[in-house]
Amino acid sequence: MTAKDLILGQHAIVASFSDEKLAVFLAERGVVAGERLCVERIAPMGDPIAIRVSDHLLCLRRRDASAIIVQPEAL
Amino acid sequence: MNEGSRRLKVALVGNPNSGKTSLFNKLTGLHQKVGNFPGITVEKKWGKFKFNGLTVDLVDLPGTYSLQPRSMDEEVASKAILNRDNPDHPELVLIVVDASHLKTSLYLALQIIEQKIPAVLVMNMADQLTRLSPDLDIDSLAAQLDVPIVKTVARDGDGIQELQQVIAQHELKSPIVAWDSLKEERHVIIKRILSNAKAEAPVMAHATTQKLDDYLTHPVWGVGFFVLLLGLMFQSVYSWSALPMEFIEGFFSNASEWFAASLPDSFLTRLWIEGIWAGLGGVVIFIPQIAFLFLFISLLEETGYMARVSFLADRWLRKFGLQGRSIVPLIGGVACAVPAILAARTIADRKERLLTIMVTPFMSCSARLPVYTLLIGLVIPIGFQGLSLLFLYLLGTVAALGAAIVLNRMVPATEESHFLMELPDYRAPRFMNVILEIIRKVTQFVSSAGKIIVLVSVFLWLGASYGPGQRFDQIEAEYAGIQDESALHQKDAELLENSYIGILGKTIEPAIAPLGYDWKIGIALITSFAAREVFVGTMATIYSVGTADSEAVSVREKMKLEQKPNSEEPLYDLPFGLSLLIFYAFAMQCMSTLAVVKTETGSWKWPLIQLVMMTGLAYVASFAVYNIMRLL
After folding, report:
1. Cα separation of B606 and B329, whole Å?
2. Beta strands B54-60 and B6-14, pairing class
3. Rounded-to-integer distance, Cα B528 and Cα B520, Å
4. Residue B431: predicted pLDDT
5. pTM (2 decimals)?
């Protein structure tokens, strides 16, 4: 499952990344394996999404979110 | 070297939204300058302050998340830090971290400390610590990082003196790096450092931000609010700037009357009044609009709202090959494309940035407004005037988005684009930051566009006041001794027709006649090529050059009185007016913009494409409108 598939308000733990370049990009902003994240906002037309992760609210496109492989927590 | 003349080169580095600019403003106050980094147009802010006999030269490097840069902006910061031969390479770095985003901020801090450059960690927004991480052991953190830490609340000015003290007493010793980022990932190191310093790990969301975002990022309320805000913004920009603009106009015309009355009638006096002074007036008149627009834009940026707008708009703008951050240049383009294009440098993706730069000049900038106002007043019936103005702004937006669609098909994408952006917590704007930002933007406008406008104005006056060979002398001789007023008007018209500019205007008349323009408009088009706002000034010059009566008849009144040859009908009628309005809405008539696009894209290719694309569209559209209106 990837961060793209999470529904609004759902929490998940970051497992790994399927895009190496994006992984570095995300690491600089605090998105690394083991971090807990939550989809907090969804823009009109379902894209982009804003996730609460590490210590901030990060906005990213669904396509980029699909590179974040996550372990979802039960709702 | 004695104590009093000690100087130190210091740089501010930090994430975007870390409060770096507030800190810079507090440290330097009004002793700051703005310009560009050499060779590129990334805005460079530098300034100085004195403390205990030490003079600190402070440079504010663009915000970045890492020393591995992705955008032009970030590259500037990383080059200055990594390259010891860089002219901006500091002797001391102030690493600004946001206390409420300690974990993320430390990533960049670690990278800088690893470079072993003497540094101070500025823990900004330190007032948040009592709420978020009350047990944080600052001394432990400072010891682990081996840099002094100063707590500040830059927006309120807290901790600024302590910071100056620490800078002055800094021994410029390189920090000892107690970790190895080759063996261990930085976020693991950060976690350990923070837990040693008893920092709270999970950070709760800001409650007010949450509540506001429930509405402001809402698909319906959020979009509605933005549209409403935009409407309010434009309404205010126009209504608030009307009075100061009137005042500036009055001041300049009163002053030129005074000059004319008190200076001897000579070449230099006329050059000063009709060339330089008139040109200066044409520059200063824009300041109110630019200032009010940037008042709004910097308020939106300062509060953190602009990031929400980008968030809301990204999906929609992506259809046109643009992205969420393009909204800032596009909105800014309504004031002036020059600073707006500079604002596009925060877009990391090459193609999306290029497209944003290419289409932003289609947005109706404030320089088009005086042209619109004059022509609408001339040909559009009262009652439809406001509507026409709104229509022109919509037309510019549609053209911008349409051009983006076309360019999106033509420009190949080099890599997949990403859109990663932080949505910062909302915060109250600080008056000083807003005011300084306005001052910076106005200065940029006056120094870039201003020079060109004054130059064109002088050139125009010379061209209109002199002609080739003996033509002027002949006309003077013909009318010698004649005092009849209508004959004198006749003489002025003849002089203008035979001036250098008149001849040039007549030369291009065949090319513009299909659009419904005569040689006088031809003159205005030629002078507008450098800066479209000189249109009104040019028309004023054309209709007042050498007029004997000082009676201030407005340009519009004078244009209204013009009649078609051998007929009583007005020369400047509706088909003509619409054609010219459309031309000015689309045409690329701004040398400053072309110059900025050249430096931003690194070649003349893109500004040339822009020139051909915009002016070509203007010609075709005006031709179509003029001829369709003629048939009706």
Report:
1. 17
2. parallel
3. 12
4. 87
5. 0.80
Looking at per-residue pLDDT, the higher value among A28 and B557 belongs to A28
Residue B34: the pLDDT is 64
Locate the chain A residue with the closest alpha carbon to B419: A60
Residues of A in contact with B420 (CB under 8 A): 25-26, 29, 58-60, 64
Please check whether residue B324 is in contact with residue B313, taking contact to mean a CB–CB distance below 8 angstroms: yes
Query: How far, in Å, CA of B569 to CA of B576, rounded?
Result: 13
Fold of B3-204: Rossmann fold (3.40.50)
Q: What is the pLDDT of residue A75?
A: 66
Distance CA B497, CA B509 (A): 13
pLDDT at A48: 94
Helix B485-497 to helix B471-478 angle (10° resolution) is 170
**Which DSSP state fits B34?**
E
Domain ranges of chain B: 3-204, 221-366+382-410, 446-631
Q: Tell me, what's the pLDDT at B545?
A: 46
Please report the DSSP string for B98-162 in residue order: EGGGHHHHHHHHHHHHHTT--EEEEEESGGGHHHH-TT--HHHHHHHHTS-EEE-BTTTTBTHHH
Token pair 């007036």 is found at B281
Torsion of CA A48, A51, A57, A60, to 10 degrees: -30
Testing the interface with B: which of A19, A40, A59, A66 to mutate, by most B Cβ within 10 A?
A59
Whole-number pLDDT of residue B166: 92
To test the contact with chain B by mutation, choose from A61, A64, A66, A68 the residue with the greatest count of B C-beta atoms within 10 A, namely A61
Enter the ipTM.
0.94
pLDDT, residue B35, reads 62
Q: Quick one: tokens of B569?
A: 């009908």
Separation CA B104–CA A56 (nearest Å): 8
Cis? peptide before A48, omega within 30° of 0: yes
What is the reported pLDDT for B42? Answer: 61
Q: Cβ–Cβ contacts within 10 Å for residue B473, how many?
A: 10
Going along chain A from its start, the domains and CATH numbers come out as 3-72 (2.30.30.90)
Per the CB < 8 A criterion, the answer to whether B388 and B376 are in contact is yes
Which of chain B's residues have a Cβ under 8 Å away from the Cβ of A26?
420
C-beta atoms of B418 and A52 within 8 A = no
Q: Which helix (H) or strand (E) holds B373?
A: helix B368-379
Kindly list the residues from chain B whose CB atom is less than 8 angstroms away from the CB atom of residue A66. none
Q: How far apart are CA B602 and CA B357, in angstroms?
A: 12
Q: Which of B410, B443, B324 has its CA nearest to residue B43?
A: B443
- Dihedral of CA atoms B496, B499, B505, B507 in degrees, nearest 10, equals 130
Which of A4, A55, A66 is the best mutation test for B, with the most CBs of B within 10 A?
A: A55
Q: Which residues contact B38 (CB under 8 A, 6 or more apart)?
A: B87
Smallest CA–CA distance, residue A21 to chain B, in Å, is 11
CA B562, chain centre distance (Å): 37
Among the listed residues B445, B444, B365, the one whose alpha carbon sits nearest the alpha carbon of residue B614? B365
Q: Do residue A26 and residue B311 have CB atoms under 8 angstroms apart?
A: no
Exposure of B595 in the CB half-sphere (CA atoms within 13 A): 11
Token pair for B315: 């999906």
Give me the pLDDT at residue B544, please: 58
pLDDT tens-digit map of B592-631: 788 878 877 878 899 999 999 999 999 999 999 999 998 9
Q: Is B70 on the interface with A (CB under 8 A)?
A: yes
Low-confidence ranges of chain B (pLDDT < 50): 1-3, 545-553
pLDDT at res. B427: 86
Q: What is the pLDDT of residue B63?
A: 87
Q: Among B270, B205, B190, B521, which residue's Cα sits nearest to residue B378?
A: B521
